[in-house]
Amino acid sequence: MSPLKPSLVAIGQTGPTVAGGSVLSGAPAPSKSKGLEEIDALGQSLIKQALPHHPGSQGDFPNSTPQKIPLNQIQKSQPQSASAVGGAGVTGAPNGVPSSAMGTLTSASANPGVAPPSLLDLSPADRIGSPGKRPSSDPLSLSDVFVPLELVQPGSQLPLTLHDLNGVKVIVHFAKNQPQPHVSVMVVSTMSTNTSSVKKVLFQAAVPKSMRIKLQPPSATELPPHNPILPPAAITQVMLLANPSKDKVRMKYKVSYAIGDETHTDVGEVDCLIETSS
């Protein structure tokens, strides 16, 4: 017998074969599973050669496992990624709650003892704006009493002269007007028979504390020089007296005026017998 010549080994066979494809006697039987693994390895090798190689891509190697990241590194990276979203940190906010809502809740919880005002807690006067309380009625008050001079009616009492000097006369006339049951009306008239003008005419009056007096604005403060042909000019001023207890009226007065460069002043006290209705 001639010596055997070596031949190509078939894919999937482990032992040598002779020409014609016969297997040498005594060689072990090929393993079918091992042959399939070799075919798979060859296919993977061909795929690697045909496709471009990207070292950073995990899709090139189906059997490669993803890189494992330690848990402590993941926890450190979470606050940074959370603070980068929207430029403001939302760490600690519940899932599904926007940061704007959390800001509202935080500001409300900052002052737990201060509750926002509610319209239900306000009384109707506070909602609409109640006017100021009116002061209690004062029987001595004359702030709301005003009697025009043209409505004054002369009374039955005789006039009372308070001052008659330097050609200047001051007379009190009693009227029958009674704007309130305890209020009496008088008119103070100042006349001049002086040939010079009388300026800065001022009349003042005071009464005891149990009553009150009010002087309305005078008609003028100056009197022209007297002309004998014409009636003397006069300054009139309405005076109101409140006397609810009907006490005896003791009035103090002061009259002052200027004639030329000289100032004259007269101070006196008089009993006013004012008739009041019972």
From TrEMBL:
<feature type="region of interest" description="Disordered">
    <location>
        <begin position="13"/>
        <end position="35"/>
    </location>
</feature>
<dbReference type="GO" id="GO:0006886">
    <property type="term" value="P:intracellular protein transport"/>
</dbReference>
<keyword id="KW-0653">Protein transport</keyword>
<dbReference type="InterPro" id="IPR008152">
    <property type="entry name" value="Clathrin_a/b/g-adaptin_app_Ig"/>
</dbReference>
<dbReference type="GO" id="GO:0005802">
    <property type="term" value="C:trans-Golgi network"/>
</dbReference>
<dbReference type="GO" id="GO:0034394">
    <property type="term" value="P:protein localization to cell surface"/>
</dbReference>
<feature type="domain" description="GAE">
    <location>
        <begin position="155"/>
        <end position="274"/>
    </location>
</feature>
<dbReference type="InterPro" id="IPR013041">
    <property type="entry name" value="Clathrin_app_Ig-like_sf"/>
</dbReference>
<dbReference type="InterPro" id="IPR027422">
    <property type="entry name" value="GGA1-3"/>
</dbReference>
<feature type="compositionally biased region" description="Low complexity">
    <location>
        <begin position="77"/>
        <end position="98"/>
    </location>
</feature>
<feature type="compositionally biased region" description="Polar residues">
    <location>
        <begin position="101"/>
        <end position="110"/>
    </location>
</feature>
<dbReference type="Pfam" id="PF02883">
    <property type="entry name" value="Alpha_adaptinC2"/>
</dbReference>
<feature type="compositionally biased region" description="Polar residues">
    <location>
        <begin position="60"/>
        <end position="76"/>
    </location>
</feature>
<protein>
    <submittedName>
        <fullName>Putative golgi apparatus part</fullName>
    </submittedName>
</protein>
<keyword id="KW-0813">Transport</keyword>
<feature type="region of interest" description="Disordered">
    <location>
        <begin position="51"/>
        <end position="139"/>
    </location>
</feature>
<dbReference type="GO" id="GO:0006893">
    <property type="term" value="P:Golgi to plasma membrane transport"/>
</dbReference>
<keyword id="KW-0333">Golgi apparatus</keyword>
<dbReference type="GO" id="GO:0031267">
    <property type="term" value="F:small GTPase binding"/>
</dbReference>
<dbReference type="InterPro" id="IPR008153">
    <property type="entry name" value="GAE_dom"/>
</dbReference>
<dbReference type="GO" id="GO:0010008">
    <property type="term" value="C:endosome membrane"/>
</dbReference>
